[in-house]
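Q: I'm writing up a methods section and want to include an example of the input and output format. Could you take the sequence below and give the corresponding predicted structure tokens, formatted cleanly so I can copy it straight into the document?
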Amino acid sequence: MWPGALLTLLLCSSLEAQENSFTINSINMVILPSHEVQNGNNLTLQCNVDISTTSHVRLQHWVLFYKDDVLFHNVSSTEMTESYIIPQARVYDSGTYKCTVILNNKVKTTPEYEVLVRGVPSPRVVLDKKEVIEGGVVMINCSVPEEKGPVHFAIAKVNLETKDTKLKRKKSSPNQNSVTLEFTVEEQERLIYFQCQASILSMRDMETSEVTKSDMVTVREFFSSPKLYVYPEGPILEGTPMHINCTIQVAHVAVAFPEIIIQRDKMIVAHSREGSRATYSEIATVEHNGNYTCKVETSQISKVSSIVVNVTELFSKPKLETSATRLDQGDTLHLWCTTSGASADNFTIQKGDVIVSQTNSFLKRASQEDSGTYTCVAGIGKVFKKSNAVRITVCEMLSKPRIFYNSKTEVIKGRTIKVNCQSINGTLPISYHLLKATDILESRIVGSNTPAVFEDNPTEDAAYQCKASNCHSNSEMTSELLLVKVIAPVAEVKLLILNNKMVESGTEIVLRCFVNKVSGPIMYKFYREKEVNPIHEVSSNDTQAFWYMEEAGVEQGGQYYCTASNRANLLPNIPKSNILTVKVFLAPWKKGLIAVAVIGVIIALLVLGARCYFRKKAKAKQMPVEMSRPAVPLLTSNNEKVLSDSGPEASRPYGYNDDIGNHATKPINENKEPLTLDVEYTEVEVNSLEPHEDFMENRYSRTEGSLDGT
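A: Here is the clean output for your methods example:
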């Protein structure tokens, strides 16, 4: 609605202003009666505007009022002054105010003005009841109807008789102007009233109201204060029956009785949850002297009264004494009991709950069974008193301690061994000391007959001894010496060669595998690299082992390693040595022999090659001659030769040379083999070097054999 009306006015003003010229000279705000106003007084906000125009009539304009930048009032006016009245200003009206004038498209705003409303109206206090029983609850409502939240309230309960503030509580109401609280009425309160005060934050300051008192509240007792009575009255002698009573009076409206408790000092001696009385009765002794208190309690109320009771002593508390509290077995145990004042006519000495003597003395030879706590009871008539307790310890001498360990398993170096010390007989507790050589390794106190167990990690053979002691006066007992053999496992293995790593063939190879000081027997194994099976193995108690090769060959060269282990080494943790490389080279004389043989072979090959070369060269120098065909002898039926009648010359061709014939012609069937029909021939190519032999160049000599010789 307001934006629509404002828009309509602006349109009308715009039309009118288009015809006339105007300007807003100034605008200011006047706050009446002042910038600070008392709570409940009227507050006037006056906005003054000064406008100049060429029009003969006043222009219509809008005046807008803001509080804390929020528009809360606007008005269309032709007047130069517009006012807004806040009747009965409250704290929530405090804030910063300003006004704005709008004429056509021109706007002007005043500065902000701070307004403070001082004071808060007195709060109203309303109670739900004006009469209450002790322990009851009163509901109080405190409110400031004129204001808005948040409001902070402080409510107090005041005792009318003492004017003391018993309880004060604070509570804030963020969205409302009232709170409701519960107050419990305590004992000893008879007339009470409540006070309420309200506070509201105004700008920077907290405004606080006056204190408002409520109506009076009357408190009725739920029960009266307790009263204590002691019978008989006056001095009380030990042995006299004594009665202490505590009584109260309860209101008729009570639905249940409170609990009544009687205490001597802080110990509860009697109590009752039914009725209005509690009673404590005893035969009086000096132990009953003290301050007696009677407490009467409910969930909310507690009332107390006290009385002191004195009882005259008939005879003193008996005192039990002994010659010694620690005795060796066989010593004399003597206990006696004494009193002062009237002589007691009845004594008993007890060990625990067992009576060991009905006189004031107890004497015997001590045994271990006599250890325990002793007391004495003395009495006259019905009065009996118990003495102090005396602790007697009879010590039985210890038997010689036994020292042992689990010998079923061997002791490995560095592993834990458990050594046991035990004395079978003797009074407990027993203090054990374990000695290693002459030094105390550890001490332990055992409260039973079980062995004392000590742990050690021996690294070499060790000797242990155990000492035991208890309360007996004799010196401590010492065990036998326990010798422990420690097996040291092989931890490191090394492999060396006794001669040079470069070994001459035919000489010996000696490999040495050795370990540090360990327990034997030790299994040594020698290996060639990349071979599964050892080349040598031996078991020895020595810390070293050897492998010999008397005449080493080249094939003995290579890489070697060894392993060593004893029964303390478990597979697969068998230590392995370093890898040793051995090289075998030939002896010089063998190298010389091989060189001579190689040279001989080379010389032989050279000689043979030269011979073949010269022979071939000799053949090349011979003149080639065409070979004649020799007469072939006919064979008879008996395979006999039939020679031609012609002599050798007759069968020789012209120019035949005997030497050539001898080289070129072979007799047929020289080995007298039967003649066959196969044709044998030899082709000889002769390169003649002589000029007169050129006619024989590239000629061949053929010899053919046939049955008829042609």
